Amino acid sequence: MLELPFDPPVQKIEHELFNEKAVQVFMKRDDLIHPFVSGNKWRKLKYVFEFAKKNNKKYLVSFGGAYSNHLVALASAGAMYGFKTTAFVRGEEVKNHMLMLCKTWGMQLIFVSRESYRDKYKLFETHFGNDDSYLFIDEGGRGELAMLGCAEITDGIDADFTHAFCAVGTGTTMAGIALGVSKKNMQAEGICILKSAEGIENDVKKLIPELHNWKMHHNFHRGGYAKTDEELMRFITEFATQTGILLDQVYTGKMVLAVFNLIKNDYFKPQSKILLVHTGGLLGLLSQV
Prior knowledge:
Elements: E1 10-13, H1 16-21, E2 24-28, H2 40-54, E3 59-64, H3 69-81, E4 84-90, H4 97-104, E5 108-112, H5 114-117, H6 120-128, E6 134-136, H7 144-150, E7 163-168, H8 172-180, E8 187-192, H9 200-207, E9 214-217, H10 230-243, H11 252-264, E10 273-277
Parallel strand pairs: 2-10, 3-4, 3-6, 4-5, 7-8, 7-10, 8-9
Antiparallel strand pairs: 1-2
């Protein structure tokens, strides 16, 4: 269940800056896994779906905002593997391309106030707590099972990489990558895309309390979650033109731009070999139309 359809390639990224600073940069193209269950979403759901099947769960219930890539992925994967899906959506009822896709795959949407949304377990218990066939899946798919799936991102990656970078929303992917590279003498690093979210580091520590091979950067959120600016959008366009690779403005775009800035400022030693993990989420680009 949810076995990868193929092993996503690792693509070398060429840029004159990298030659100038004597570093090598590669990208793990997890965005190519699936058009809708892409990147870390497939990874996060892999063992959750396995758990659901083994424990006779028929209904999968999760949480997210109106533009949640996680909800789109859950709805799509649920339809593929015969699960019914429900989502509690934060905020007033709206219509957009993301929620339209969720509905098309049969997901039930329940819009709740931002205040009610804060207590996700209460929402779940109130609506479905008396039925063991329902499974609670936290916002963004975060949790230990999701981390184990994300730990497989670096399977088969050469041990001569010095750094592995990802965008950080919940911290689960970051923890998984740190776990995956813990025996490869590689540093896992995350670019936090939320403002004033230093507490996410505590969530990572809870998942991997024995590991110290990771670091999180908090200065590249560009104003906060889903905030954009002209520099970021210009960079995404230039990167796509030069490499053919699309980046979204919420997650991977901010991460890649941050790494470019770190390279410019001599953060890396010469001869460093850097892996950028593309975590998908490209549907978010459509919100800019």
